[in-house]
Amino acid sequence: MTLRDWRAGELRFLLIALVVAVAALSSVGFFVDRMRAGLERDALQLIGADLLIRADQPVDANWRAEAQRRGLTLADTVTFPSMATAGKGGDSVSQLAALKAVSTKYPLRGSMKIFDSPNGPERATQEIPSPGTVWVDPALLTSLNLTIGSPLKLGDKEFEIAKLIAAEPDRGSGFMSFSPRVMIADTDLAATNLVRPGARVTYRLLVAGEQPAIAAFQRWIQQRIDADQRKGVSLESLESGRPEMRTTLDRAGQFLSLVGLLSAMLAAVAIAMAARRFMLRHLDACAMLRCLGLTQSEVTQLYLNEFLLIGLLGSALGALTGFAAHFILLEWLGKLVLTSLPPPSLLPALQGVATGLLLLIGFALPPILQLRNVPHNRVIRREQEAPKPMALATYGLGGAVFVALLLWQAGDVKLGLITAAAFLLGLALFALIGWLGLKSLRTLRGAINSQSWRFAVTSLQRRPAATVVQIVALALGLMALLLLTVVRSDLIGAWRNATPADAPNHFVINIQPDQKDLIEARFAQQGIVGAILYPMIRGRLIEVNDTAINGTTYPDERAKRLVEREFNLSTMGALPPLNKIVSGRWYSDVKPEASVEQGLARTLNLRLGDTLVFDIAGQRVRAPVTSIRKLDWSSMRVNFFVILNPKLMAEMPQTWITAFHLPANQGNFVNVLTRDFPNLTVVDLGSVLRQIQSVLDQVIRAVEFLFLFTLASGVLVLYAALVGTQDQRSQESGLLRALGATRKQLSRAQWIEFLLVGGLAGVLAASGAAAVGWALATFVFDFEWSFNPAVWLAGIFVGAICAFIGGWIGLRNVLNRPPLQTLRES
């Protein structure tokens, strides 16, 4: 029976729907599985040791002595941003680099991978740069037009480029640092004269040894950190394994899985519709089998076995398709992880097969159970009883499977339930609007004097349920694609419009007090206006209202990170440009006072009148909050979370920071500035933002690729809805042709019908995408949003094209049958 149904084409569409659903989820499953396996395999290499102590100041010498007493091996790294300069005099060029000074024995776990020449083979090494030499990322050679052996100046010392860095074990992910790496031996660091007061330096002590000794030392050092309330010190171990990377991967996996699940859910609708058509076309055959002696249970088992065969075959083909498709995701997203990835496990394939079978059971079982209740006398009476309550109850199984799959793929109960509710709400809203649009066509039936137009409108209204399903399915698929194509471009455009054309595109940090007047004079000579120098003071918030605070004080992750690191504080007499007081008043500089940015105040639950205590270079500074400020972050100007009055901060150590706009034709100014003041760090925001955007574009392209599955699922549902009415359409077509309608009129009516369905689905999709875009701009990105008519034009055009494709595939044979044959069969 299975072979006969296959030859008759009854099962092919069901198989295709299963393949699309399983492929959408399996492609994400294989991708996430390999990324996670790579991180777990390289867990130790992600920190380059068994335990890592990270600090803003050199690590306590007593801690080193204790580690050595316990027989542990130690290594050090010092990292900070700095300018790398190539060339001499007026021909010099500079590039912001991530400088890293390493000690012997680095790394303690894993190994460096280097190139001896640009085109040479990659090799692993346990060496570090020899004194007077530097290892660099290949990207630095390109940006500065250098070769191996070229000189490179870092601060006051000139080095020779000796090797190219292929991979660092403890660098982790490509998106953790956008600046190219420059690595030197720690014995050369002092000669550069780059580590000065106010420099953003991170010290790391790497520790390795036997696991029991590492665990005991970790407990010992954690007790010291907690007892002394050490600030700016954190521990990383194998268990933590760079949690920010794991969190990022987990969240990306959840999002991609939900995108794939949207495709699977639409395909599930197609599966349910295909199964219902299968049931309707097998009623007579089922009645015949009952007459020949098969029991209800035997009939049910017969059809369940047939569907199980199709389910296993479709799920296996879907898993294979997903395995092939995941290589596209790796091509776009795998570059974010620099280490090679291990081969995938069988788990995603097994999950894909299980998903396919669950979808089949949840959405195809109800129609199949109705076949067991087909009476014997249907062979003669051609009647069908209403579905039994138990058969109807099985439709609830589909809903339960839907929610279970969401929870499984999301990996989070709250996220899964919210997604399920949002999906069902959007489904209901689109269905309501589609039904209202269908009702409104009744008034337009006579608006156009065309028989084909009237045939098309009548056909849509004759099958309202099927028409609404077609509209909703296609609209959901199109909305997903529009949101990530046209609307994404509008969001980027609005973000760019929110930033003025003359907004600062360069930041300069680490300006020393004795350099302040010289730097201002340089700006004046260059004709740069608006480059205000602000003092920057590093301090840690240690008390709020006489209560000591630390990372455990706040449950919110962002709040924890804020109180565990030093703030960039500032002091000035007047309110900075584009800052607005939303509550309180600006200080009068008579007594200690603090002004706090409203976002920080919200995160740390700070209010007017709260007393803050900062630790600044060992000195306690106490000030009440007298104003809350709102900042214009899109201005790209220098902004501070906390500003203290000048009288309070007069004796505090400080460096200076500024931001300025540099026209493209004055790019050499930065090279001259960093040549004359090598301790300065100049950040080219245009370059950084381009690199960030390139990473985001990779992610967006991968998600857009997944949404192709969503669009394919929407077209499948459209096709299923059309094929489900194929028999009825054939009868109507035969009758109309027998009554005098021409084949051309009916063909034209079909095209009009597809145009109406696709156009309405496109309007709904564009409206939904625009609404989501507005919500993102208003509540997430906080900039002005303007609706783009191109979204609706694109929605209508793509919707019509998809409807034409699905309609042609589903109904191309309806008009080919002779009217006499249709009438005889009826």
Notes on the structure:
This protein is an alpha+beta fold and 826 residues long. The chain has 26 helices and 22 strands. The strands form two sheets. Strands 2-3-9-6-8-7 form a six-stranded mixed beta barrel. A six-stranded mixed barrel has the order 13-15-20-17-19-18. The chain is elongated, with a radius of gyration of 34 Å. Mean pLDDT is 77; it is low at 172-176 and 239-245.
**How would a textbook summarize the main sheet?**
6 strands, mixed, barrel
Radius of gyration: 34 Å
Tertiary shape: elongated
Q: What strand order characterises the main sheet?
A: 2-3-9-6-8-7
Average predicted confidence as pLDDT: 77
Poorly predicted parts: 172-176, 239-245
Tell me the strand percentage band.
15-25%
Question: DSSP helix count?
Answer: 26
The count of strands amounts to 22
The computed structural class is alpha+beta
Distance between the termini: 25 Å
The helix fraction, in percent, is 40-55%
Characteristic key phrases:
17% strand; single chain; 826 residues; 6-stranded mixed barrel; alpha+beta; elongated
Task: Describe the secondary structure blueprint for this structure.
Layout: H1 2-7, H2 12-41, E1 51-55, H3 61-69, E2 73-86, E3 93-102, E4 112-115, E5 122-125, E6 133-136, H4 138-144, E7 151-154, E8 157-167, E9 181-185, H5 189-192, E10 202-208, H6 211-228, E11 233-237, H7 243-281, H8 283-291, H9 296-333, H10 347-371, H11 378-381, H12 389-393, H13 395-410, H14 413-444, H15 451-462, H16 464-483, H17 486-498, E12 506-511, H18 516-526, E13 534-544, E14 547-548, H19 557-564, E15 567-571, E16 579-584, E17 594-597, H20 598-603, E18 611-616, E19 619-631, E20 642-644, E21 655-660, H21 668-676, E22 681-684, H22 685-724, H23 726-738, H24 743-781, H25 789-811, H26 819-825
Parallel strand pairs: 3-9, 6-8, 15-20, 17-19
Antiparallel strand pairs: 1-10, 1-11, 2-3, 2-7, 2-10, 4-5, 4-8, 6-9, 7-8, 12-21, 12-22, 13-14, 13-15, 13-18, 13-21, 16-19, 17-20, 18-19
Helix pairs in contact: 2-7, 2-9, 2-10, 2-22, 7-10, 7-13, 7-22, 9-10, 9-22, 10-13, 13-14, 14-15, 14-16, 15-24, 16-22, 16-24, 16-25, 17-24, 22-25, 23-26, 24-25
